[in-house]
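Margin note: ligand = 2'-O-acetyl adenosine-5-diphosphoribose.
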Amino acid sequence: MTAAGDLPEAGRLLTAASRPVVFTGAGTSAESGVPTFRDAQTGLWQRYDPSRLATPAAFHADPALVWGWYEGRRHGVRRAEPNPGHRAVAAIRARLPATVVITQNVDDLHERGGVPDPVRLHGSLFAPRCSACAHPAPVPGDAAEPPAGPLDPPACARCAAPVRPGVVWFGEALPEAALGAAVEAASRCDLLLTVGTSALVHPAAEIPLVAARLGVPVVQVNPVATPLDAVCAVNLRGPAGEVLPALVRAAWPDEHTG
Ligand code: OAD
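Resulting structure:
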């Protein structure tokens, strides 16, 4: 195990918890082969800045470009598998049923890794909806190959406007119910475990701070430093797919997360 940081202390904090929050970012899915939001883009998308594609203006200007980019990301997620980090989060939730998992990710790897009900702050690649009337749209069938470039979005079955990805774009408000549930969980938890997030994008990045301000211990899992270092009780420097199973074993030596 490659983590640096006080793993036994983190294990003790987890053993003592009864209502933890697990707050995850893109790094949680990195070892499943899903690029993080700030990883370099590949292929056709190299010349596009993700933060300029993930906006209402970009979709309005070129729906096919934005829809094609997201369908390419969804294609990659469908071929990815949950990693031991996802399964360790599920093991925590199985041991402590009051655990609340809050994710910034738009993949479905928490669900496929044993957490059926994450609080989704940024939506999902698997919840497309109409860009005009918000009518839910079916998830497109799985293509054999990812789109090689722009792809015309489907038309809404109700009003014929273009369907959009069901994710939160820059400049858009987070889903009110999800944000409320996340703040409520962070306000009530007795441990906050933040995993694989750069903690740069607000308001999601406020969630660990809600707990920290109440004196709740924050444990971070990330190979590199983030703005959350300043409020962490324990910083576990390493990849989630290795550190989280080790953390679970430190808390419950009889647990085998697989
Ligand atoms: P980022 O790409 O900003 O950060 C990923 C974090 O994961 C970085 O801090 C990496 O150091 C860390 N990391 C990389 N590999 C890891 C591993 N194997 N184990 C653990 N950590 C690892 O992704 P997020 O913080 O999730 O918003 O970004 C937050 C939001 O920014 C995203 O949800 C997205 C973007 O705007 C929307 O799409 C609305």
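The chain has two domains: 1-32+82-122+174-258, 35-79+124-167.
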